From TrEMBL:
It comes from Zhongshania arctica. This is Uncharacterized protein. The chain crosses the membrane at residues 20-50. Keywords: Membrane, Transmembrane, Transmembrane helix.
Length: 146
């Protein structure tokens, strides 16, 4: 593949933390549901936290693109063995996924592609808290000019 690799894979710690989080709430739900005569608000809270955690980790850990290559005129996105070329005129917006995750960038497209209407990738190795990745401003400018 030609071009510059602008993405980084999810860290092992992220995957381990997600499994730990979901496992903790799944076990807590089982204990609450297994207790005799006790169906309380705690069971509802545990099930809610399990659902929210699953959705959150799907967006921030498991649903990330494997690789994103900047090839000048287009971005080459690789996810689960599939490749897709995103030309800058097909991109609607490029922004942070969540305000507290500055290292995650979401690309929203104008049309459906093989990955849906958006692709999320990790733009830096670390966990920048207050600063945006350098590549974000560059990509936003190129989308604006396309």
């Amino acid at each position: 593949m030609s071009g510059e690799l602008i993405s980084f894979p999810a860290k092992g710690f992220d995957r381990s933390f997600a499994k730990l989080w979901l496992g903790f709430f799944a076990i807590a739900c089982l204990f609450i549901l297994a207790a005799e005569g006790v169906f309380s608000f705690g069971a509802f809270v545990c099930l809610f936290m399990l659902a929210v955690g699953f959705y959150y980790f799907k967006q921030t850990v498991w649903g990330l693109a494997d690789e994103v290559w900047d090839n000048g005129d287009f971005l080459l996105v690789v996810k689960s063995g599939q490749q897709y070329q995103l030309f800058f005129n097909q991109i609607k917006s490029i922004k942070h996924t969540y305000p507290n995750h500055k290292h995650l960038i979401t690309i929203s497209t104008k049309y459906n592609n093989s990955f849906g209407r958006s692709v999320t990738f990790r733009a830096e190795k670390g966990y920048p808290v207050l600063k945006s990745p350098k590549i974000l401003n560059s990509l936003q400018g190129r989308v604006y000019n396309a």
